[in-house]
Design goal:
Layout (H helix, E strand, L loop, with lengths): L1 H20 L3 H15 L3 H4 L3 E3 L11 H9 L3 E7 L5 E5 L6 E4 L7 E4 L14 E4 L3 E2 L5 E2 L5 H11 L5 E5 L20 E4 L2 E4 L8
Parallel strand pairs: 1-2, 1-6, 6-9, 9-10
Antiparallel strand pairs: 2-3, 4-5, 7-8, 10-11
Helix pairs in contact: 2-4
């Protein structure tokens, strides 16, 4: 059963990556502006003091307008730095000039924070965590990129008893009927696409 889910994920990833590869830079830029606008309407982000986010690469839904909008609101933004063991360390975002391009082995170069490393546990202090992904289904199950780094992040949050809002940023076409699921997979709380927000749990009291 697990092997079947793994194979299903691989096939779905291939199909979705192919769709992303056909997007133009204008498509990506327009979607990024709309995503930022929609995401900022989420109560969990509107009230957050610290947000763990990421810098989009390639055809991923763009995150830079959102990072800048959060920083303009004096929100502390944490960005990941990939470690050699595929786990994530974190650093504070201080504007586009605070990012450095880092190539990890044969993988695509990533933009990472240039400053002090805060340790893998720093994500536990975030009020909201923005997750990259390729799809999400009607139950909130996310299809990740396949590297496993964010599975570790989610497991770490669970162990620490932390309960930040988990939000995935996608294109409209990437909200699908069903994502193949493995035992370690955890649902997200909301998905933001250029056309709107879909929630999988109510916003916490007071939000």
């Amino acid at each position: 059963m697990e092997r079947e889910a793994e194979r299903g994920k691989r096939m779905l990833r291939r199909r979705l990556r192919e769709m992303r590869s056909r997007l133009t830079s204008d498509d990506v830029r327009e979607a990024a502006a709309a995503l930022a606008e929609r995401a900022l309407e989420l109560p969990e982000l509107a009230h957050a003091r610290t947000v763990a986010a990421y810098v989009s690469v390639g055809g991923e839904p763009g995150t830079m307008p959102l990072l800048e909008a959060l920083r303009a609101r004096d929100v502390r933004v944490l960005l990941p730095a990939l470690r050699t063991d595929n786990d994530l360390d974190w650093g504070a975002y201080a504007g586009p000039d605070s990012l450095v391009r880092v190539r990890h082995g044969g993988k695509m170069a990533l933009l990472e924070p240039a400053g002090v490393r805060l340790g893998p546990e720093a994500v536990g202090r975030a009020d909201a965590v923005l997750l990259p992904g390729l799809a999400v289904d009607a139950r909130g199950m996310r299809l990740g990129r396949g590297g496993g780094s964010y599975d570790r992040v989610l497991a770490r949050l669970e162990r620490a008893g932390a309960d930040p809002a988990l939000v995935v940023l996608l294109y409209d076409t990437e909200v699908v009927e069903r994502v193949p699921e493995e035992p370690h997979d955890r649902p997200v709380h909301a998905v933001v696409t250029p056309s709107g927000v879909r929630r999988f749990r109510e916003s916490p009291p007071g939000h």
